[in-house]
């Protein structure tokens, strides 16, 4: 069989009876050896991966819906759908399915009860007829019809047979004629039977039946049948609501009659599902899956048809932004867009992208900027919903628009500032709108969704823009409610600061602002740090520790906790300099012995400082507040802080004493005269041994020549010393020594006593007669300064030995 590829979207029905998008690809029908039959294969258009592999089973009922849909069930709770981009592709795959099953492609459902095995038919359907035999459609037989419809619901095969019978004989329309007769006669018993019949037919879950029942000439009669629930004393008045109360408002006249009919139908079917039909039980969940699909794909079709009508959308935007438009008309336009965006959620991802890009090109964001600033609460609420759809779809698109706005003198006209102002001015006592807007702001300023690969400067540019033009608007209520400085208050004043908000709604608003600022501390390290320092923001926030609303005090504490959690010494110095632990410790002491969340949160803050060993904060807390905290013994936190503090002091003392020991180790340089003479003799003896084996020693020289040569060398050395004094260590203002020369192996001999001659003679002169190592030798003036021993003697001795072994030529030239 030829391999036919068509572009499709694969859907599966989830547990909530909603269609999940599994991806876009190309469908083909081909023989699969592993499945031993012709199968439907869908390969993803992005990477060629297999999205679907489904064998066309002879017993599976495939349904063709709305020209571009094929729906079937793989298992009892696993429904699949293929949504084709083109009708021709759907027709071609449908013909392949029908060819495999041996069915007529003109049918909209492939399963024929004749294909069932004899065993299944005997077990499930004792009747010999291949179709369910329906009783005559008469008033007297309504009870029999109702019993039949109810009885088949438990058997999938009998449901299929009943559905075929109802479609083949035009039975539905005749039943609805009986409904009008019963209503005219006020035949309540017949009306109750018709309720059971129509409800059962809906539970047959067949799209072909829905097409008939939800057509313009039948749907209101279907709704009428469902009004007469036998469990109700009086029937509901659903038809009255749909025809009189629910008004279809055309913000712009819709000229397409098919689109208008589709909108009416979708609204009414949605009403049937959500309002009229009872919530399905666990055993009935699958009965209405096709009804859900019917509504879903209707919405897709409505959005697509509206989106394709450019004149319609252009006119809507023109009226929305026109200052002359009446408020009532603008309210209807905004509500239309809200519904339009809600319907768009049913679109496939690539179509949804195109939808929102179309709205953006038409100017949805400038329009929202206008309507969100209006006084009408309904308009603002609807505009907020539209804004949330846009932010959820593409935060970058919104950020790009905001940064392109002209920078006017009044920052309040900027879209983000309009959003912040609406959040601040929310009149709802529970601040429901403010909470929603705060979530949108968080999404916009979240660096995680600022995609660096596509635009590396987006994060830097937008955050710079936000902190320059918007942050002062966000923090204005916080700064206004913490305006007075608490340190000016006299001691013993009341706990509750007059500037702390006692109003619950204001406290809630400040808590939301603090939550957003805490988010900024975690994610905007550079910008928020500068803002906190410049505005002394933490001090203002900690004023709220005095609020009578504990949740607000906890928000202020959480803000400080996030700052300390960064373990940034820049922040730590700011906290220490401002003595900003004072309001926190006052709150802890004022809380007394109450074991509550505030108590635990404050103790956790100090526990974190102790565990992380933040030394600067530990020292500040112990030095300034330990006397007030030492009585708290039900936790070991503060004693632990004191312990850390003492340990650090001990370590510093040890370092200091070690430093002093090094300063005092000049004794290592001082030796008595006898020791120095012994060293000198040992050095000369060692030198004599080396001379004997040196092939380059000048033959005319004897041991007696060395003292004379040495005396001449010392006279030259004294002259050289005066030149090299600038290389001696100089005492710095801190009292330590600063060295400007490097140490050599010659300094490691330890022979730099007060009258040492051997030490100075340990340096060899260069061929031109200058001292090669004299700059590195600690001479007599060096000893007088009490020099710290800066060399490791054993190692340096080894280095000298190596140097002497590798350079035997140097020493014989000492007297040259």
Strand content: 5-15%
User: Residue ranges: pLDDT <50 for 5 or more in a row?
Assistant: 112-129, 485-498, 687-710, 724-816
How many helical stretches?
34
The assigned structural class equals: alpha+beta
- Main pleated sheet: 7 strands, antiparallel
Q: Give the overall form.
A: elongated
**N- and C-termini, Cα separation:** 108 Å
**Rg (C-alpha, Å):** 46 Å
Provide the spatial order of strands within the biggest beta sheet. Answer: 4-3-2-1-7-6-5
Biased composition (Acidic residues): 113-126, 680-695, 793-805
Family: Belongs to the SMEK family.
GO molecular function: protein phosphatase activator activity
InterPro entries: ARM-type_fold, EVH1_PP4R3, P4R3-like_central_dom, PH-like_dom_sf, PP4R3-like
What does this molecule look like?
This is Serine/threonine-protein phosphatase 4 regulatory subunit 3. The chain is built from 34 helices and 9 strands. The protein is of the alpha+beta class and 816 residues long. Among the domains are: 98 residues, Pleckstrin-homology domain (PH domain)/Phosphotyrosine-binding domain (PTB) (PH-domain like), CATH 2.30.29.30; 173 residues, no CATH class; 93 residues, no CATH class. The strands form 2 sheets. Strands 4-3-2-1-7-6-5 form a 7-stranded antiparallel sheet, covered by helices on one side. A two-stranded antiparallel sheet has the order 8-9. Helix 3 packs parallel to helix 6, helix 5 packs antiparallel against helix 6 and helix 29 crosses helix 30. The longest helix is centred in the last third of the chain and has 27 residues. The termini are far apart. The C terminus is likely disordered.
